[in-house]
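pls read this stuff:
=====
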Amino acid sequence: MEIVRQASRGDIDRVIEVLDKAFNRNIVGDREVYEKKYREIEKGMDNWLVLEADGKVIGAVRIIKHWMRIGKSKILKGDVGEVSILPECQGKGYGHKLMEGTVRWMVENNYDISRLGGLCKFYKRFGYIRFPRRYIEIEIGRKAGAGASMVEEGEVMIEEEMLKKIDTFRAGDEGKCIKLRDEFNSRYNGSLIEESFGISPLFYVFREDGDVSGYIGGTRYEKEYSEFEARITIYQIAYRIDKPYVIQSLIKYINNLAYREGINRITLRIPFDPEIINAIKEIPVRFRLVETYGGISGNMLQVINMESLFRRLVPELEARLERSVMGLYTGVIRISIEKGNVILDIKRGKIDVVSNAKADTEIEIKEFYLLQLLLGLLSFSEVEVILEKKTGVKANERDLLNILFPRCPVFSGNWG
């Protein structure tokens, strides 16, 4: 008999053995690596599930719990990883049972959406759909024509006054960085809601008038891991949005660091915000905005629980109504995707998620589009033509849905 259950402290050694053998990591053979992994699993014990067959743990999976911002609302995302089965048990359907149990566990625990990266053909069976990744790529060291001559796009000038303000993290900076992060992230859907503050291996702050006006952080790898993980990958960023010179100086500094180390590419997993793009545009670096889909293996998302998701979205949806000319709207809307539906009972700016009511308007939409609407990657007006091929949407409801689902600035990296 096979069961998927929450891991306990007594399972840690067995989980490490599964990971060690499934991924050929040599964890058990290196005492220091083993102890580090043991402490990591023990600290995040609630994140682990195991597959038990005939009383023996033969598989494991980690689900990292992330609260993610959507305007005034927060939704719960389960980030699935470390999906592993003992090699001698592979090819016997145990991976299928592990993933079925994982999704079922997230449904039972009121997760709203889930993300993972892996083989698309396999994970599609459990409801996951291919979803894009976004990042900004800076290229360094390319030869470019300048009239009759060629110049190398490498190190860029940083004004001495700005350079003096770039510093490493100090004791006492944490509170300032948290305050700055929270102010910055509040602009973006998809940003994580975090209480603590982690310092990445590569981290610099911009000090100004005794305060921290910005920071940038990431990792310097020994090699390139993927198209969106160059040897220098930036995934932490915050700055006073009215001070573009802060982000410009920090990006120049990272660019020059990479150039001096012979690194020809930097990836930044940061928002595609017009303000940020405009700031980078003023720096003489070659960069591009990348939205990419994996092929055989890629980033994947899915809606886990429609009702829980929309209940948590209500504060933001009501705020959008309040700011609009549709604040007095009254009606019932059913939104359906391939795996389920949700009914919104709207009365003069207040929204209830109900289990049963006659809908005035019914919207059928692919889950792929709904996820983009929720994040703000697309607005309803951008998908309404597709909807019109299946069902008529009245003008009043079309106006309402355009208000409920606008295009918004979205933080990259947390959803793909």
About this structure: The radius of gyration is 24 Å.
